[in-house]
Design brief:
This protein is mainly beta. It is built from three helices and six strands; from the N terminus they run αβαβαββββ. The relative contact order is 0.18.
Length: about 200
Amino acid sequence: LEGTGLGIEAFDATGFVPLAPAPRWKTLAETTLPTPSGKIEACSRLWAASGHDTLPPYTAPERPAAPDQFRVIPGRAALHTQASTTNNPLLSELAPTNTLWIHTERAQALGIADGDWVEVCTATGPVGRLRAKVTTGIHPEAVFMLHGFGRKTPQETRAFGKGVADEACMVSGLEHEDPLGGGLALQKHFVTIRKAEETN
């Protein structure tokens, strides 16, 4: 119990802390936010006064412009934490590299089979190679890869040169920064995919 702030009397006969007899949070009537209205503001008067549209009209995103072009989607895996665990000896046994998920129909059109090597290119040139995971579990206009691979530091002996770094696919990524919140649009980038030669 040390450090919990609870004495033995806080526990019931089963050894658990019983439910609180009343809510321990503020009601809506007691809650105010640091906005002019004191409430959540979907349309901020402060942003409007500075010339920003807080609820701009929807604009459809760009779509792939060629049969071999895809929107690249970076993602995470439950067993890795960003790029900080890809060199871990135990975790690298479970996920030693990333693969490129590609929709079955698009893969067939490009002559790519499950497990084939594929080369990923951006507008500035090739980024790297990794194995294809052909699946219907992804949108036909997108490809997916786990974040944290494609390491360039030789000291990361288990992760060095394994897979492709998704951030290398985000050419001019800072141009997509949100001017109000500062967030980056990680899924506005496109890559081209082609089957690569097998190597030992």
